[in-house]
Amino acid sequence: MAGRGTDIKLGGNVDMLIGQQLGDVEDTPERAAAEQEIRDRVARDHAIVREAGGLYVIGTERHESRRIDNQLRGRAGRQGDPGNSKFFISLQDDLMRIFGSDRMGGMFQKMGMQEGEAIVHPWLSKALERAQKKVEARNFDMRKNTLKYDDVMNDQRKEVYAHRREFMAQDDVSAIVAEAQDDVTDTLVARHIPEKSFAEQWDVEGLTQQVHKVFGLDLPIADWAREDGMDAEGVAERISQAVTQSHAARAANIGPDLMRFIEKQILLTTYDAVWKEHLHALDQLRQGIGLRAYGQKDPLNEYKHEAFQLFTFMLEEMRQRVVSLMAHVEVSPPPMEDPFADTAAIHADPEVAGYASEPGTGLTPGAAPEMAVPIGGSAIMPDDPSSWGETPRNAPCPCGSGKKYKHCHGQLG
């Protein structure tokens, strides 16, 4: 009722009444006379309603927002027509009970007002206006607070989209992949080799397993740890050299052009996947972050802090996935050519694709031939039906007419 875009016309809507009563009646003199009768009736009804005072809007309660009440009032008195509106409220309505003054009920009782008696007083109107202002201020604060949370996600979205546009604009992302390999290597080494620690304190077995899992390499890290003067930086450098050599060998085996294409596709698809997971994690964090207020902590600051940690984890996860996929990528050799591929002209015609592997036709499996070829690959003579073999009914007729076989020489009866 409080929406915009549709006026309540006094006397009725002429176009709607014509459509309902006449429908699809042909344009004849009778139809014109019927339309004129409807227009005259609506004009008479409009004059009667206007004389009576126009549209009268009755509201059974007041909305939390004054804007909605004003929209409802605006339903009356449209298009220059007269109108009026009146609202009825109760002290037990949620708006008055929650946001109104608690003393109002007792005050009216002291004034001698009885239960069920209509109350018309300026104090009531002022109290109602104050209650609506309180609700509007509360809703405004809620929207403002929600916008602050959205700004955190929006800042991260801008950063992610900037990186993605940078990846898409480059034809060669090998430098980005190489940088990711070095970052993952440093992260693995720092995780298993504590700073300023002795070789006996290193998690050599765990580092070896992680290097094999991520890079697919079996490296003698335990032997390196027993060397004199070996430190975390030296281990990281040797792992990085082994990863670079392995990647270069794989690129030489696959081919430089194909390798550049694979690197870019893996980088973009992985970035998209981790970004979707990150958005889901932020949504879950947002749902429960309000409980931090019970611990005397600002939920917004806590959200910003943890969202930044999740963003950092997302970038690390992206780099590790890219490096791991590049280390395990394999390119299958192309399928062997069909020895019968040169015996028929292959076309992507969906109407005959279903007969590509029909037995007894001598056709190429999985393809849609333009015309049937007899077993043995003998040439088709358009003027010799005996050379046509078993032609499928939906295949083009071998006579060259351009019609399907079932509509040409393959007609039944």
Walkthrough of the structure:
With 413 residues, the chain is an all-alpha fold. The protein folds into three domains: 14-131, P-loop containing nucleotide triphosphate hydrolases (Rossmann fold, 3-Layer(aba) Sandwich); 170-328, Helical scaffold and wing domains of SecA (Orthogonal Bundle), CATH 1.10.3060; 335-413, no CATH class. It is built from twelve helices and two strands. The protein has helices spanning 14-22, 29-52, 66-73, 94-99, 104-110, 122-169, 174-192, 204-215, 221-225, 232-254, 256-288, 299-328, and strands spanning 55-59, 83-87. The chain has a two-stranded parallel ribbon with strand order 1-2. α1 (14-22) crosses α2. The longest helix has 48 residues, at 122-169. The chain is flat and about 105 Å long. The protein starts with 13 loop residues before the first helix and ends in an 85-residue tail after the last helix. Residues 338-377 have low confidence and may be disordered.
Ordered list of secondary-structure elements with their pairings:
Blueprint: H1 14-22, H2 29-52, E1 55-59, H3 66-73, E2 83-87, H4 94-99, H5 104-110, H6 122-169, H7 174-192, H8 204-215, H9 221-225, H10 232-254, H11 256-288, H12 299-328
Parallel strand pairs: 1-2
Helix pairs in contact: 1-2, 6-11, 6-12, 7-8, 7-10, 7-12, 11-12
Keywords:
3 domains; Rossmann fold; Helical scaffold and wing domains of SecA; 54% helix; 413 residues; two-stranded parallel ribbon; 12 helices; 2% strand; mainly alpha
> Low-confidence runs (pLDDT<50, min 5 residues)?
338-377
Predict the CATH topology of the largest domain.
Answer: Helical scaffold and wing domains of SecA
Major sheet = 2 strands, parallel
Terminus-to-terminus distance? 68 Å
Strand content: under 5%
